[in-house]
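re: ur question from earlier - yeah i can do the single chain one, its not a big deal. heres the input i used so u can compare w yours
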Amino acid sequence: MAFIVTNAIRCVKPRSPLCVPVSAQHLCTTPHGVSLRYEPVGYSSRQLPSSDLYPIGTIFIHKVFGYRGIILNGWTVDLERKGLPVPVVQPDAKQSHKEQSVGHQLLGSLSKDNSTAGKNNASKAEIHAEKQNYYLVMMHPSDFPYASFRLPDSAVNFYRDGTKKQILDHSDYCTHEEIGPLVRPKQFESPPVLHPLFGKFFKSIPDSYTDNFHYQPTEYLHHWLANVKHLLEFSTVVTQTTNNVGVTVVPVYSGHLEDAMLKQVWRYVIQIESFDQVNTMQLLSREWKVLSRSEGPGNFEKISGDGVVGRQPIFSPDEPVFKYMSYIPLEKAGCMWGSFTFHYIDSATHKPLIGPKNMVEFKVNIPAFNLEVPI
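and the output i got, formated as tokens:
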């Protein structure tokens, strides 16, 4: 990316203590002619091995998007790395029937344990399951505008009592590898994350043996997490790489609606990453296939459109990642899968180019994932 992450730092060069720019056009662009002012935020801390969870209250710099944040909760999920893509059915008179058949087989295979998932999949895709730590985090609001064109403003929206939508502003889900932990000395008087809920969620505790602050979760945070745990956490993440582009999907149950025909709601957070170190590409369109367990007609639907969330993001070796969140309401649980269409473009003019293997446009698979109601 355009900014360099070195020892979890968002500056062009390593500094001590760590600094972040507080006046810039964007973190992910090189602001020629713009004067940057740096604000110290803390010192780099020891990275924990992937087998260990960072505790609640850990402050950090996000290694990809560069924002400051604090961990609200952490847990371990099953990460499924899909091998082969879902088969592409050629258009014909029986296409809808064939796609539904594929979907029903996917629905059956996705409902099984990881040890057997995919064995009965029509695509015979290999699924490699492993464990990965994920975190719900709260970001520093003033950092968000710099990363907002590649990051959703909130990953936590849900319907707690079937009526009113609740939003945790400036929240995100992070992997263990994206966390760059920090320690914050007593010399810093302001909270590390100037979020409106910081004072409700955390207490600043000075360490008598070191010169650092610790951030202890309050009873309010523990109570909140316990009450909405089923609307915050997820158990499975799926990822697949096609044509040098990776797509990772985090599906999360978002509650039910009392007065709606499609009562169940899920949100899904998708992170798209280009691993191409040479070419620039743009996401043109999306195509989804959605299968619900509801009975009768209408349980299978195809959804297509330009871009994602009103955007057609560009991916380059300097800016390879885009993350967004969307929703799907269904009558009952189900599953989704699909594809994105990309094309190669000139990095300067953004005009289409012929890329590797003489391709102009190419498909990137969205791996199949389950939409389940937590028990």
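The chain has four helices and 20 strands. not sure if urs matches, ping me
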